[in-house]
Amino acid sequence: MRQPDIEIYLKDSDQDAVAEWLSQAIAPCSPWQSRGKTQQCQAGEIPVLWLHKAVGNWHCLLLESDRTPWEDDLACARAANAALGVPIRCAPGSWDEEEAEEEGDRWLQVTTEGVSEILWRT
Q: Residues 70-92: pLDDT tens digits?
């Protein structure tokens, strides 16, 4: 089932490199605009949000649409890792506030070695 949005975390990634990747994968990106602690742009018709160092050295990339080329966070994480060569983290699926808090600490990490499940206490 397609997710309503895509949220991934990129380690030590360059914002301009991410914009270039999105331009190739989706559509050309508009210039970044500052909105408080976030940067925003549009990749075609898809709103993109970038939060620099959202968690330590991990930057958050949020694509606010269900019309991306990727069905879910993991598919996007794999594509981002292949294109950018940096570790990527994403949630293993949708998370509901009614679930145990420990479930919110379960993440997937995508590296050149593959996908592994980790505990990430954000």
A: 999 999 999 999 999 999 999 99
Q: Is the pLDDT of residue 116 over 60?
A: yes
Q: Is the pLDDT of residue 10 over 90?
A: yes
C-alpha dist (Å) from residue 11 to 28, 87, 89, 97, 100: 23, 6, 8, 26, 27
Query: Which tokens hold the place of 79?
Result: 């594509």
Transcribe 50-62 into DSSP letters: EEEEEETTEEEEE
Contact status, residue 63 vs residue 10, Cβ threshold 8 Å: no
Helices (H), 31-90: 73-84
Domain boundaries, the chain: 6-119
Q: Are strands 46-55 and 38-43 parallel, antiparallel or unpaired?
A: antiparallel
Helix H or strand E encompassing 89 = strand 88-90
